[in-house]
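Hmm, what's this shape?
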Amino acid sequence: MAGESTAPVLIADIRGAQIIERFYRQCGLETIGPGRIRTGAMSRFTSLEDLFDKLLTGEANSHQVVVSHGHAEHGLLIKFAQESAFTATGAVIALLSTLADAAAKGTLAADDARLKNAATMMGVKIATAQRLLDKLNKLRARKLIIHIRGCNIGANLTLLSAYKSAMGAAAITAPNVRMVYAGINPRKPPKGISMGDLVGDVKPKMPNTRRRFFPWPENSYVGPIIIDIRDIDGHTRFDTETFINDPALTPHWATKLNGEWKQAPKAANSTSFVLPVLWDNNESTWHAPLEEGYRRKLVMV
């Protein structure tokens, strides 16, 4: 595991933020490619400016995990500032990078047409745009290693590189496919149906469902688990259905699939856990954090 320090986790104030917080609270590990880092304190951000503020509190050259809705063309989907109604930050990030360069050199006048254009595109006042540029230049001195976790952010390497340049990051990683923090709530198979049936002739009832069967490799009393994940809307909404012979043994699978899960058997909520999942629309399966397929879908610039 990389290093001994912990990486702060910055989570957009979005629907489902609680389940994301539960994952980092009870697992505390983030896959970043061939290795994993340990995560630490969590906080929420409400806008791009708020994200900059949170990142500025981090130590120089440190790892930072950022969780937000994302899009291959529109980038991080968060408001630019509290006064803004626009969320497609990817449409302006390259321009902000260029303007930050000019501001750092002292060549950006307050009446510069490019600054006015950027403010208009972000739906903010010129003073707010100038404030964002100032924070970007301060952020660049930090040389952070930023791990963005949101759908398809890494599918557009040009856009991902623009975020890296704007924030002066030493590196940025992100998934190039859809990502979800799936709530896993195992139950026993329906009456008259065995786990074997579920991997045989009994197929998922709902369309757009991908079923995976995980055997317990040590052939112990824990037994296998079957996890169905269903795509609801083609973007952020997923549903799950999970089967296990003895739901009381769920914490063993939480640890097996995540690498760590801080919850003892029979404790409160011990029959459920959270599993980060990467979902490629062009595949028939999905990928969990310790799998090679998961690691291959994380890109770095």
Remarks:
- The chain has a mean pLDDT of 94.
- Residues 179-279 form one domain.
